[in-house]
Amino acid sequence: MSRAPRVNMVAQIPDAILGAFALVPSSAALDHLVRYISTWSGTETCYQLVQYTLKLIAPVLIARARLQHRVGLRKDPSSNAAASVTKFADIVGDFRMLGRFCGLFPVLQWMISMERSPPPTRALLNIERLQGWSMLAYYPLEHLYYLRVHDVIPATLPSLTSIIRRSSSRMNLNATKLAMWSCRAWAVYVLLQFAHLMEDRQLLLTRERHLRKSKDASVEAKAELRRSWDTFWNEVIANTANLPLAIHWSLKNGIFTNELWPSFFALVNAIAAFRSGWRATALPVQRSSAESDLDNVGDLLVDEKQEI
């Protein structure tokens, strides 16, 4: 008997309160953002942007605290805000590494599809094959590093020979060495990507020459070539930013003494990756079916590389 009045009270709540979002207009940008972060690479890139933006904000907060301390505006030169920002950036980085436990599946899918639909040249095919194998080494090594640094697995495990021959030999899992070797495998991918970009450039130059010689080149074909060049240079920036990171994390003592530089290069890469992924998830412009298919091939190639 007492439940009926309560139901009536809920029903009498005005629509202006419960339905307040009816006044909010629909947003194409919000729809686009949801489409982008719904992809695995989109989520990874957004978290990368957050992580390294925070890592660059923290030194600014520390410098501000020290300056305020010098002029007598605060008693302590340390910054609690900087410590909190750094801690949250580390949490985001840890989450990103955990999320990459699923990263091997897109690589396997890419390598399988590559053999069925190979790139336009033999050189590109072999480059991408080598890149795929480097990622097959990178991900398991990084996973072992993550599990070891969190003490999920012990420092020693039975070796493969001990399992086959039933011996007592064991292998040591050094977290530092696992991290370095995983980054070395990634560095191989990054270096191969420069060779890939050189091949891409030759293909784009060939297309450009054909368009110049063609008397009936359409406006859409020229616009497509401009988009391809834009994608190419975006990839050049992203990979150039990756190179010093790959070298730095592949060496025991690294190449940078100031950790601001790795954060800066990682942020540049994240911005380039976000830009590429944003374009790849944009709604297609209504054009002919042949041109739409050509765009989809280019977008899928960009998305596959961001997945890696």
At a glance:
The chain is mainly alpha-helical. The protein contains twelve helices and two strands. α6 (104-116) packs antiparallel against α7 (122-149).
Task: Give the tags.
308 residues, mainly alpha, two-stranded antiparallel ribbon, 12 helices, 2 strands, 2% strand, disordered C terminus
Going by helix content, strand content and strand pairing, the class is: mainly alpha
Q: Give unreliable regions as ranges.
A: 288-308
**Distance linking N and C termini:** 61 Å
The average pLDDT value, as a whole number, equals 87
Radius of gyration: 25 Å
The largest β sheet comes out as:
2 strands, antiparallel
Task: Report what the structure shows.
The chain has 308 residues and is mostly helical. 75% of the residues lie in helices and 2% in strands. The protein has helices spanning 3-11, 15-18, 28-37, 40-70, 80-99, 104-116, 122-149, 160-165, 175-213, 219-250, 260-280, 289-307; strands at 156-158, 170-172. It has a two-stranded antiparallel ribbon with strand order 1-2. Helix 9 packs antiparallel against helix 10 (219-250) and helix 11 (260-280) runs antiparallel to helix 12 (289-307).
